[in-house]
Design a protein that fits this description.
This protein is α/β, with parallel strands linked by helices and 172 residues long. 38% of the residues lie in helices and 26% in strands. Strands 1, 2, 3, 4, 5, 6 and 7 form a seven-stranded mixed beta sheet that branches. Helix 2 runs parallel beside helix 3. It is globular, with a radius of gyration of 16 Å.
Length: 172
């Protein structure tokens, strides 16, 4: 188990738990794909989460892994699904929230820069632009809203309280 995720199988269902900040993890994508293939490429996948978000690179990896999964995918938001964690929810076939209000917050991607040279700084800016474009594409596909509307909305930090037990979408 890493700092933010755990994976296990229970009664033929793969359970991926994501709790806390989504952070860097060595060989994360390879490890998770291997675990899922060992448990069954077409088995149901249940994602249980409560996360404030985190590293958008890892969240995009989770998005790709879940989208590539051949079995049905459900996401259960226990309380918080903010920032990069919303990408994980977007990858699932069905998203369910608890009976009480919970958080769902989207915004333009942000990262804490730890690079110092100009070339590395430019690489970070380029990465953030590509990540933002990927996020806008994903949100556009899920909501049916225009790219411009999503980009305007994402320019700030928008928290949403959503009622539970329904397909979670801010715009529907």
């Amino acid at each position: 188990m890493s700092n933010f995720f755990n994976i296990r199988a229970l009664a033929g269902t793969i359970i991926l738990e994501i709790y806390g900040v989504i952070t860097e993890y060595d060989m994360f994508e390879e490890y998770l794909r291997w675990q899922i293939s060992e448990m069954g490429d077409d088995a149901p996948l249940a994602v249980r989460m409560s996360s404030p978000g985190g590293d958008p690179r890892i969240a995009m990896s989770l998005y790709r892994i879940i989208k590539d999964h051949k079995g049905p995918t459900d996401c259960y938001i226990e309380y918080m699904c903010d920032s990069a964690a919303t990408l994980v929810a977007c990858a699932c076939d069905k998203v369910i929230g608890n009976e009480f209000p919970f958080e769902y917050m989207i915004h333009d991607p942000e990262m804490q820069p730890d690079w110092f040279r100009v070339e590395e700084g430019q690489a970070l800016v380029d990465f953030l632009k590509k990540t933002r474009d990927d996020m806008v594409r994903i949100y556009t596909e899920e909501t049916g809203m225009s790219e411009d509307a999503i980009r305007q909305h994402d320019a700030g930090h928008h928290f949403h309280e959503l009622p539970g037990s329904t397909r979670v979408w801010l715009y529907r």
